[in-house]
Specification:
The structure holds two protein chains of two kinds.
Chain A: H1 2-47, H2 57-63, E1 67-68, H3 78-92, E2 99-104, H4 111-131, E3 139-145, H5 156-162, E4 164-169
Parallel strand pairs in A: 2-3
Antiparallel strand pairs in A: 1-4, 2-4
Chain B: H1 2-17, H2 35-38, E1 43-46, E2 51-52, H3 64-68, H4 70-80, E3 83-86, H5 89-102, H6 107-112, E4 117-126, E5 131-140, E6 145-155, H7 159-175, E7 184-191, E8 194-201, E9 208-209, E10 217-222, E11 228-235, E12 238-245, E13 251-255, E14 261-266, E15 272-279, E16 282-289, E17 295-297, E18 305-310, E19 316-321, E20 328-333, E21 339-341, E22 349-354, E23 360-367, E24 370-377, E25 383-385, E26 393-398, E27 404-409, E28 416-421, E29 427-429, E30 437-442
Classes of the chains: A alpha+beta, B alpha+beta.
């Protein structure tokens, strides 16, 4: 009886602690937000130009999108060109950041050929980023072939998500 | 502790690869049947469980494993499909036991079983059973004599290998064919979702993980003397080629250039290594001289060139290229550099492996949307599809005697390894893994 009582108290204390933590987290975010918006307001007032929130490696990485490919292809489609333009714009916000483009394939096909295919896919995106003003010296490519797939099922809706190039900056 | 495990690991492994036996042959009569050419009439053979050499061995209570090791021999000979095996040990064991007790072989009793040959084995344990010496005898019922006898001594941990050795001896004696019972197979397994490199006996036993880099490790290959295993492993986000010396346990980089380093294949004399390196994101074939260390580029196409495999004479390479669209097979003459296209059927032909006899190439071909194992004859360019299933079959590798192809297939649900007898078409499952087995690579004959 005594044991279960103290257990209960323990739970209650834990719950209170958790609530407190959550609350303080929420507060922090709010403060940050309001600071950012006031900063933005000041900037806009001062220079009369449009300005974005502070750009960080994390914020750029969060905004980068994967580029997708057709089966056994490494050429860029019209829609992937759009995605690359978006990515290049985001990357250019942090000049000097090192960029890693990793190439992936769906699980069909074979280990070695998919590794080569992933290298070509990553390279296609690299070249397109260079064309969009990202310095070549800052970009490195890596092929994972069919390894590290994002989607594990054996169907086309999954395969098409795995035929991709992923971009990240450091 | 870790070093101890490591040392033990390699010692065990080395012994299995680099003959630590004393073997002796006596009473050999040359009997040569060549079943393969005579037709498919199978040889009837009996192999009773093995017996202790003398009775004073009560010191070692659990001798079952030494006696039951006969099963390894039965399986090896069964796999070849040259033999009809008498499996009923309840009948065979008493015959051998009385022959052994009387020190006299009653050939008439074995003749009554209807067998052509039988193999007996006796063992002598030393060192608390840590060391064992087997004496194997191949008896001819017709000749009423021992036609082959060998003695093998090894660590108690290598029981299977000792039996494998004699099954190859018996196969050679009775058919003229060099067996593959002591060969090994590299393959990719998965741990924590990441590919790792493993090695196992040809029959799927004694599987052992070789890679320990923590990262993805894949695409293994053998050096021509079976001494070093090479594979691609990731370090600092770059796929590099690593060599693992099985004799010393030493690991050293083969290539760490920025970009893909993959698909290494050694010329039969071991002097040249052809591999795929993607300089500036373009996968091409490169050739390394293993003595001088010098390297030269073999392909100059804008596109993919990968997966080289040597002809047995070491003068040509078959490889994959997408220079005309989808991946197809091409053959390059190493000396002149001239390249000719080999495959025209199908839109996706990859992973070529040159047969040990030199006259055909096995590869993976996309047929009706599913990968299958195909073979193309170099004399008439005729393509034969060897697997015909709704499930995937891919990544072929020849046994060094050219009789079998091991490949991966998802026919059981997930990817496992299967062995195909090329002349009979029989397929046998080799691995039973939890997370799948991929990309098998058969070793060469052990020296």
């Amino acid at each position: 009886m005594k044991k279960s009582m103290s257990k209960k108290i323990g739970f209650i204390l834990l719950a209170i602690g958790l609530a407190f933590t959550l609350q303080s987290c929420g507060k922090k975010t709010e403060t940050n937000k309001s600071m950012e918006s006031s900063q933005q307001a000041t900037d806009n007032a001062g220079k009369g130009v449009e300005s974005a929130p502070a750009v960080t490696v994390d914020s750029v990485n969060a905004s980068l999108v994967d580029v997708y490919f057709d089966f056994d292809r490494y050429n860029l489609t019209a829609s992937s060109e759009n995605r690359i333009a978006r990515n290049a714009q985001a990357i250019r916000q942090l000049p000097g950041a090192s960029v890693i483009v990793s190439g992936y394939c769906d699980e069909r096909g074979t280990t070695e050929y998919n590794l080569a295919l992933g290298a070509k896919r990553a390279n296609s995106v690299k070249n397109a980023l260079i064309a969009q003003g990202v310095p070549a010296a800052n970009i490195r490519t890596v092929s994972y072939g069919e390894e590290n797939a994002v989607c594990q099922e054996q169907n086309e809706s999954c395969y098409k998500l795995n035929r991709r190039a992923h971009i990240s900056i450091r | 502790m870790k070093t101890m495990i490591k040392t033990f690991f390699f010692r065990t492994f080395i012994v299995s690869l680099f003959l630590f036996f004393s073997s002796s042959a006596y009473g050999v009569t040359d009997v040569y049947l060549n079943v393969a050419r005579k037709g498919m009439e199978k040889i009837k053979i009996a192999i009773p469980d093995f017996l202790p050499e003398n009775d004073g061995v009560a010191l070692f209570p659990d001798q079952k494993m030494f006696a039951k090791n006969a099963q390894v021999l039965r399986n090896d000979l069964y796999v070849t499909e040259y033999f009809t095996i008498l499996w009923n040990t309840k009948v065979l064991n008493p015959l051998f036991a009385s022959d052994h007790r009387e020190k006299l072989t009653h050939y008439e009793n074995w003749k009554d079983l209807g067998v052509d040959y039988f193999i007996t084995g006796t063992y002598l344990l030393e060192n608390s059973g840590k060391s064992v010496t087997y004496t194997f005898k191949l008896h001819s019922v017709k000749a009423k004599n021992v036609i082959l006898a060998k003695r093998y001594r090894g660590s108690g941990k290598l029981l299977r290998l000792l039996a494998h050795k004699f099954s190859d001896d018996a196969l050679l004696q009775l058919t003229g064919e060099r067996g593959i019972a002591t060969t090994k197979i590299l393959y990719e397994g998965k741990e924590g979702g990441k590919k790792q490199v493993f090695v196992m006996d040809y029959d799927g036993y004694n599987s052992m993980k070789l890679s320990r880099e923590g990262n993805i490790s894949l695409s293994p290959s053998w050096s021509s003397d079976n001494r070093t295993v090479y594979y691609t492993t990731y370090r600092n986000d770059n796929p590099n080629l690593l060599g693992l010396d099985l004799l010393t346990g030493k690991r050293s980089w083969f290539s760490t250039k920025e970009g893909l380093n993959n698909a290494l294949s050694f010329s039969p004399n071991g002097l040249l290594g052809a591999y795929c390196y993607a300089k500036d994101g373009n996968p091409d074939l490169y050739l390394r001289n293993m003595v001088s260390g010098s390297e030269r580029r073999l392909t100059f196409q804008e596109g993919i060139d990968t997966s080289p495999s040597w002809s047995p004479d070491g003068r040509r390479l078959v490889f994959v290229s997408d220079r005309h669209g989808g991946p197809q097979l091409f053959i390059m003459d190493i000396e002149t550099g001239s390249v000719s296209r080999l495959t025209y059927e199908g839109s996706y032909n990859v992973e070529p492996v040159w047969s040990p006899d030199g006259d055909k190439i096995a590869y993976t071909s996309l047929v009706d949307g599913v990968n299958q194992i195909a073979v193309i004859s170099l004399s008439d360019r005729r393509v034969t599809t060897l697997t015909d299933r709704e499930r995937i079959s891919q990544s072929p590798s020849w046994s060094p005697n050219g009789r079998y192809i091991i490949f991966s297939s998802t026919r059981s649900g997930h990817s496992e390894l299967y062995r195909l007898n090329v002349s009979t078409g029989t397929v046998s499952r080799v691995t039973y893994t939890k997370n799948g087995a991929f990309n098998p690579v058969w070793s060469f004959f052990s020296q």
